[in-house]
Write a structure and sequence with these properties.
Helices cover 54% and strands 0% of the residues. The protein has 171 residues and is mainly α.
Length: 171
């Protein structure tokens, strides 16, 4: 009985290897990319690339274990969800209100140590941020929010906008 179950599971594992994920990402348009548009300091750029861009941009790199199912399906789902939630490759398409909200969330998730995810940090040592690195990211995005909010005021002819937490578009 146990032998049959083991053989069945082994057969399923072999069969699912034929169902690989699509690793092709859209081409990055530099005119929409966060780093091209906002030009953060080099240290912030390096941190974003090592801890964020792999899931939150079209610059995902797929390690060897993304050739093994069902692990690859889980990672592919995670990347798709991450890009839907925040995509640095699409930053230029965000409204000012949405960009402000996303910057606010970067601060919140970084401060609460929710990002990068522990499962990502487990496999990517470079994404294990120190407290100083987290603070650098939070400070940068706090300054960015001030700039975005100033652009919102300018865009409205000098009148302040409704609460910056109001979100235009889905998250």
């Amino acid at each position: 009985m146990i032998k049959n179950i083991a053989l069945g599971l082994g057969g399923v594992l072999v069969i699912i290897q034929f169902f690989q994920i699509d690793k092709i990402q859209p081409e990055v348009n530099p005119s929409l990319d966060f780093i091209s548009l906002e030009q953060p300091p080099q240290e912030v750029e390096n941190l974003l690339r090592s801890a964020c861009y792999d899931c939150h941009s079209y610059e995902s790199e797929y390690p060897w274990y993304t050739n093994i199912q069902p692990v690859a399906w889980l990672i592919d789902h995670h990347i798709d969800h991450s890009q839907e939630y925040l995509n640095f490759s699409e930053w230029g398409n965000y409204s000012l209100s949405r960009a402000d909200h996303k910057a606010e969330e970067v601060i919140e998730y970084t401060e609460n140590r929710e990002m990068p995810l522990w499962s990502y940090r487990l496999m990517h040592k470079e994404a294990q941020l120190t407290d100083d690195q987290r603070q650098l990211i939070m400070d940068y995005f706090a300054d960015l929010r001030v700039q975005i909010q100033a652009k919102q005021v300018d865009a409205n002819g000098g009148e302040s906008t409704p609460d910056a937490n109001a979100n235009s578009g889905s998250d």
